[in-house]
Design brief:
alpha/beta; 16 helices; binds nicotinamide-adenine-dinucleotide; binds zinc ion
Length: 405
Amino acid sequence: MQQPTHGFSVPFKFPVHFTQDVWDRANTVFFDVIRQEEADRRHRVLVVIDGQVASAHPSLPQDIRGYFSAFPDALELVASPLIVPGGEAVKNDFAHPLSILKHINEVGLDRQSFVAVIGGGAVLDMVSFAAAIAHRGVRVIRFPTTVLSQADSGFAVKNGINLFGKKNFVGTFVPPFAVINDSRFLESLSRRDRIAGVSEAIKVALLRDPGFFRYLETNVENIASGDMTVLTSLIRRSAELHLAHICGNGDPFEMGSARPLDFGHWAAHKLESMTHHRLQHGEAVAIGLALDVTYSVKKGYLAPIVAARILRLLEGVGFRLWDSAMTDRAPGGSPAIIHGLREFREHLGGELHITLLRGIGHGFEVTEMDEAIVASAIDELEARDAGPAEQIEPPVASTAVFGRR
Ligand SMILES: NC(=O)c1ccc[n+]([C@@H]2O[C@H](COP(=O)([O-])OP(=O)(O)OC[C@H]3O[C@@H](n4cnc5c(N)ncnc54)[C@H](O)[C@@H]3O)[C@@H](O)[C@H]2O)c1
Ligand SMILES: [Zn+2]
């Protein structure tokens, strides 16, 4: 006899705000956001700040204290803002989420309390992870402070840290309570950090929006020089496209193996680990995109002239499309980076799914990758890096494939 099945669905919604000077008392975005549920309560908040953001904005803790004291009936700052190290290192050691858990315990946050986290994608990922496992989920309000996190990761519904040398090995799927993008934070980014996140905007343009791609091409010089007007509009469009995907693709918690927004990411994640995070996520994504674009040409999916435009945009923004780690060899002699395919499949679960391109705005999925062609695409990026820009070679015949099980 067939057994009855049981199930339920839970709707999620979270606002994503764009603002300036969020901790100015005249700005009520945070006040309104936190009171969107249970408006009559006094809300308890633990604030955590990325160390480099705190250094670049020394008045921030004081501004936050001032903001909370302006709304004493609605807001309670449970402790002085906590400063954590910025950058990927904070995702590489379990001691960091453990320390957040310790503070959550000490100040007695409950599941209706809040952690407000201000920082780059790495700090957001780590702190959101700790909050997600405290009491099985304390609410998180994210304040992304980098181009990458405002354009992509800040409103992602997942979090995590790295373990066993693998990117995001531990983590959970939990949407934030709210996201507040304050463009003022971007002003203190180094040129390197302003540029790094642009690769995620290029990625989503390639997958979803040829018009946005043309906008990026037209404004390449302004992007490269870190022009704030162009960067903030690029962030908005990238955010819209990422959010439309997360909220509209029917698989927000990535139960299936397909992961279109991870275009370029199988190689990127591996390169980040191989370089011990010398390459930032966004920089590694730029190389991963270049590799999969070059591979798409070699497989005959993408016209060389289109690929040339894409590589030109990436380089024009300021990315280097090559890293010495790409020549590292695995024990059998194959490029070590190819192990990224195996790890990516393990991370996805089930079949390998890699997004490639047929044209700008036309991503599609393949379930196997030809290792020899990947190796040849790597060689081609190396040659391009060494000399004047070269034409990508036309398609080659298939050889051994990775992905068949
Ligand atoms: N959860 C997701 O779905 C998702 C999606 C994409 C990326 N990510 C993750 O995001 C991380 C990368 O994030 P990122 O690119 O923001 O880098 P990051 O967090 O490493 O920040 C880069 C550097 O800038 C500093 N910084 C941050 N804001 C600053 C500011 N306003 N002024 C001065 N310095 C500032 C940081 O301290 C750090 O040193 C990676 O770990 C990546 O895996 C997560
Ligand atoms: Zn990414």
